[in-house]
């Protein structure tokens, strides 16, 4: 096995045991990038020289007994909406900032403090405003979309071109590409991780979080980003509002790999919304994964999704005007520099009446209350992350058996939006493959600041199914 094939946890253990050096790992991952990047297009900017210097520094620190933790010496990618000192933040757009930021974003600073090695900036759908990331190709089938908007991060992790990566999620932008490329993606609770230094798409829906190859790896990254803000391994016993309360420890103390016991845990299975207009192969894969959770001892309970008919309107009613407000000045001065799809959405946001935006805010408040009540009945909700596997590049719509025609972007955001609207934590982990041989995602959602339970369930499935694998082969 080559070092780039190791999971984060595996690489960290090898480094700690003295069996692998950060320099060897970083060189292996850089070599992998050199071998696959031309075919995948995951990176906007590669910082190979600074990565090598960081790896040497990490190696010296560890040799001197100054080991900072499991991320020390681990190479990662950073979505190009997230500032890192000295590297330009372009947002994969011609409108992007012309000068590199002088300081790190809050999350990049925390990863630097943990000793992680920054490889470079990964592609995003322009300003995070899309679900395809057209510059990047799917790691498993280059003729298909990578998913977005954190497509570059997901593809880099899937292909072994990063041991882990960070993305952002406003309507599914971590979970969608994670599902389409067969990796793990975690959108934490709104407010758990700081957004300082992250280019905003929609201030009230934006989240930042990790993409990894395993649930264990996601927990390690989240712990480094959030820190222990409660008793280790504890979960919230009540559901606080998403903007207040003290987060519990995000999940560093997961059960050991051989444990997959979910006895006493209540998992809600939606009766509506999440299994409507879903590809049969995806549904079969997700339901098989849910059956695996039952076999681990979890109690499955049918539930109704609150206010389901208003979810999509609320998501767009919040996101579109907020995005337009964020881009107001550049949209007026240099509209021609935006891609056509993003420019049209930004122009449409200027036409949304203030009353519609306020109604969306009110709907969001009601949804949060209703989901809080829902989580008094169950501990976790399990559902598909996406309604279909990765579509072919250039496909703009999908026709469902009932005759409904849906835009690809609407389809991919539909099942992820509830967690953005309510701010609850949501994890996507790979299941499948579907009937075409492509992966899909199982989405697990929990109470605000109860990442520990969501990660516990994901780890149990991963352990019981034996589904953890190495990087996908990248065809010529």
Automatic annotation (TrEMBL):
Residues 229-259 are annotated as: Disordered. GO terms for molecular function: catalytic activity. It holds the Pfam family Amidase. Transmembrane segments: none annotated. Residues 231-241 have a biased composition (Low complexity). It comes from the Bacteria. InterPro entries: Amidase, Amidase_CS, Amidase_dom, AS_sf. Residues 24-455 form the Amidase domain. This is Amidase. It comes from Streptomyces auratus AGR0001.
């Amino acid at each position: 096995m080559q070092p780039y094939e190791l999971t984060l946890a595996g690489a960290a253990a090898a480094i700690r045991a003295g069996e692998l050096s950060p320099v060897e790992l970083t060189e292996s991952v850089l070599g992998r990038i050199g071998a696959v990047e031309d075919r995948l297009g995951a990176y906007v900017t590669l910082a190979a020289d600074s990565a090598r210097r960081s790896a040497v520094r990490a190696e010296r620190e560890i040799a001197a007994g100054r080991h900072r933790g499991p991320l020390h010496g681990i190479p990662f990618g950073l979505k190009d909406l997230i500032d890192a000192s000295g590297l330009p933040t372009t947002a994969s757009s011609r409108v992007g900032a012309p000068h590199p930021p002088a300081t790190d974003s809050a999350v990049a600073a925390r990863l630097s403090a943990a000793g992680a090695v920054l490889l470079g900036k990964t592609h995003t759908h322009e300003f995070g405003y899309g679900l395809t990331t057209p510059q990047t190709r799917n790691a498993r089938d280059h003729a298909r979309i990578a998913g977005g908007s954190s497509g570059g991060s997901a593809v880099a992790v899937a292909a072994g071109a990063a041991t882990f990566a960070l993305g952002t999620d406003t309507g599914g932008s971590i979970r969608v590409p994670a599902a389409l490329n067969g990796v793990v993606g975690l959108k934490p609770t709104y407010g758990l991780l700081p957004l300082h230094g992250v280019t905003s798409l929609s201030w009230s829906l934006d989240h930042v979080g990790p993409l990894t190859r395993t649930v264990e790896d996601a927990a390690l990254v989240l712990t480094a980003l959030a820190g222990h803000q409660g008793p280790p391994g504890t979960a919230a016993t009540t559901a606080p509002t998403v903007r207040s309360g003290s987060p519990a420890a995000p999940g560093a103390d997961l059960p050991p790999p051989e444990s997959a016991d979910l006895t006493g845990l209540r998992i809600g299975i939606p009766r509506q919304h999440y299994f409507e207009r879903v590809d049969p192969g995806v549904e079969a894969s997700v339901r098989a994964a849910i059956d695996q959770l039952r076999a681990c001892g979890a109690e499955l309970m049918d539930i109704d999704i609150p206010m389901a008919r208003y979810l999509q309107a609320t998501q767009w009613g919040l996101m579109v005007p907020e995005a337009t407000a964020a881009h107001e000045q550049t949209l007026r001065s240099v509209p021609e520099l935006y891609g056509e799809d993003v420019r049209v959405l930004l122009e449409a946001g200027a036409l949304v009446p203030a009353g519609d935006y306020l109604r969306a805010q009110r709907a969001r408040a009601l949804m949060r209350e209703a989901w809080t009540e829902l989580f008094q009945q169950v501990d976790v909700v399990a559902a598909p992350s996406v309604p279909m596997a990765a579509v072919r590049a250039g496909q703009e719509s999908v026709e469902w058996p009932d005759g409904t025609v849906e835009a690809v972007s609407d389809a991919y955001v539909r099942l992820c939006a509830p967690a953005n609207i309510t701010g609850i934590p949501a994890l996507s982990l790979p299941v499948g493959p579907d009937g075409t041989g492509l992966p899909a995602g199982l989405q697990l959602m929990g109470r605000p600041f109860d990442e520990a339970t969501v990660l516990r369930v994901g780890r149990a499935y991963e352990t019981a199914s034996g589904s953890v694998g190495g990087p996908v082969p990248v065809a010529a």
